[in-house]
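Write out the 3D structure for:
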Amino acid sequence: MQPTLSSLSLPAIVTDIDGVLLRQKNPIPGSSEAIRFLKTPLQDIDSEKYAGITDCLPFVCLTNAGMGTESQKSKALNSIMNLEGSHEIQENQVIMAYTPLRPVMESYKDKTVMLVGMAVGNYTLEGVAQSCGLTKFITDEELCTIYPRLVPYRPKSTSEIVQETKKKVADRLGLASTEELEEPVQMHAIFIMTDPIRWEERVQIICDYLTGPDGCIAQKMPKVGPDTHIPIYCTNDDIVFAGKFRLPRIGFGCFSESLKRIYQLIYKKELQLNMYGKPCKNTYDYTINKINTLTHAKISNFYMIGDNPKSDIRGGNTAGWTTILVKTGVFQQTEVNLNDSEDPATHVVENFNEAIRLICELEGIKYDVLTKLSL
């Protein structure tokens, strides 16, 4: 009798991207082959155990990156890793740092909010906002352009650019004319999507909008900050990440730490940030729900594969998952430190390919196909 998917217990595999699958825009050796294995129908992995099962192992990419949409990220991954056809990573298999925030953003679709973050090429805040259902938003760059007096140290934009920006924002907000933008508009929430380019400017305008409880910039500087302020949502707390240089680079978390410290210095209050992304519990809860929508199989174990102990591994450990730390990114193993001392993983392996082999061994799954793909 052939098995049914609902009768099977399968491992759910969750992996970080940067430092695990890729190093900047270069695939880490063996990662493409391992993805092809994960995208292979179970009946082709073990024709006896999984006869007739055309589904693959439950698998998602969980990244703290925030630039671009899930669709753009999956397409970029497939291009870089040379994944084609049935081996392609699908849009619903990518969870960006802001993805768990989508339901929250939906609740603000008719309210004016500020979006903070960098834009690179086709990866724009506007594109992400529209994909999340936001219609009334202003980006941090638009604010700095329209109200240059808020950020006095930047070169002033031309009058043509200022007027074009005002017109675009007025149309988006449904205002009768650009004259209604004479003073900074009220914000109902701030979404920090990625770390911005000009930190000092963004810290300034965010702090301005926290001078009162209602998202309006105060007429007079308060000596002490208000008891409450509009919600601020932040999507990444990584202090460092793996880049092209041999040493880790400072990450998004350094921006949020700077923002909190400056706010405390100015307003004598602790800034309340609603954190999302790894290692936050809300992001791992969202991932569990996402996995359950992708398969009808029972989940035997959740596995988190990552390179950053304080992000990937800490979050996975807190969620009660089996964690696998790879040596291809932030974590640097030494003869003394075989595992991270503060956030130790369940297992430490060389790379993503070895992590998938380990999971197969732990779960009793054949990986002959992976071996053939890796030759």
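The domain at 5-96+279-374 is CATH 3.40.50.1000 (Rossmann fold).
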